[in-house]
Specification:
Distance between the termini: 9 Å
CATH topology: Na+/H+ antiporter like fold
CATH class: Mainly Alpha
Largest sheet: none
Radius of gyration: 18 Å
Number of helices: 13
Shape: globular
Low-confidence stretches: none
Number of strands: 0
């Protein structure tokens, strides 16, 4: 088991360390270009490749999708209550503690831990939460609706195309399959390297508050993932991936939202950094539990 855990964790640590070291050495890294490349090209290709290339049945996708939505609803409701009781600004912190780093960490870990089946289930979870994060996260942070931008969201468009292939039972042409498979190969390493660069550039806000909310993000995410997986009857890799994705630290995207709408960006940066550091300490136990 130790060897299996190291096989999963070491590639993650290596890629994140490359990005972290690159930034600390002062080398140029265009984070905006990388983010656009991944979100506009790489991730849609990965979604299309994973969903059209898997042998999972539509009911499996439906159950996984239901579980992903369940995790999102429970985390938003629970976090709203916790922040209200704690007297903390919900515009600033509700997206941060509700949306985990299912992209930069959760998706690569799903692939490394579960292989091809991990791509299929992980991408299903990712697609749903990615759309929700852009719509709800932006709406919460800005205080206004962000639904207009969804029609232009590349991941949503790729998901709809994939669903059309699945529902109609149509096999994508070979040129499309080969193209998206080739392009999707850049996603996992770029996301992890980008995470390392982002961590190197972040600075702490309030340490005490960051520690409390980071611990909450990891603990509540795990508990909600376990509960929802049990409630919808997930088993095997589907259960493991749901719990794994739900237990990830605060997503870097939340810091981008906080910067854009000026909702305590320093505090949110501290959450991203500290929750990620804590997650590396808890990751061996988490992987041991889900594998």
């Amino acid at each position: 088991m130790i060897g299996e855990l190291l096989t999963i964790m070491i590639p993650v640590v290596v890629c994140v360390s490359i990005g972290f070291g690159w930034a600390k050495l002062g080398y140029a890294f265009d984070s905006d270009m990388m983010a656009r490349m991944v979100t506009s090209v790489g991730l849609p290709a990965l979604v299309l490749s994973a969903l059209t290339g898997t042998t999972l049945s539509p009911p499996d996708f439906a159950t996984t999708g239901l579980a992903a939505v369940g995790v999102l609803i429970v985390m938003l409701a629970l976090s709203w209550v916790v922040l209200k009781v704690a007297g903390l600004d919900r515009r600033a912190f509700l997206p941060a503690v509700s949306f985990s780093n299912f992209g930069n960490m959760g998706l690569p870990l799903s692939v490394l831990a579960f292989g091809d089946i991990g791509i299929a289930f992980g991408v299903t979870f990712f697609a749903i939460h990615n759309v929700a994060m852009f719509a709800l996260g932006g709406a919460i942070a800005s205080g206004r609706s962000a639904l207009r931008g969804l029609v232009e969201l590349p991941v949503l468009c790729a998901s709809l195309v994939a669903v059309a292939f699945i529902v109609t039972g149509t096999t994508p042409p070979a040129w499309l399959t080969n193209s998206v498979k080739l392009i999707s190969g850049l996603v996992v390493p770029l996301m992890l390297i980008g995470l390392g660069v982002a961590l190197a550039r972040l600075r702490f806000g309030s340490f005490g508050r960051s520690l409390f909310l980071s611990s909450y993000r990891l603990g509540a995410g795990f508990a909600v993932g376990v509960a929802v997986a049990w409630a919808v009857g997930l088993q095997g890799p589907a259960r493991g991936i749901l719990i794994l994705q739900s237990s990830m630290p605060v997503a870097v995207f939340n810091y981008i939202l906080a910067e854009r709408y000026r909702t305590a960006p320093g505090e949110v940066a501290g959450l991203v950094l500290l929750s990620t550091l804590l997650s590396f300490a808890t990751l061996p136990l988490l992987l041991w539990y889900v594998l």
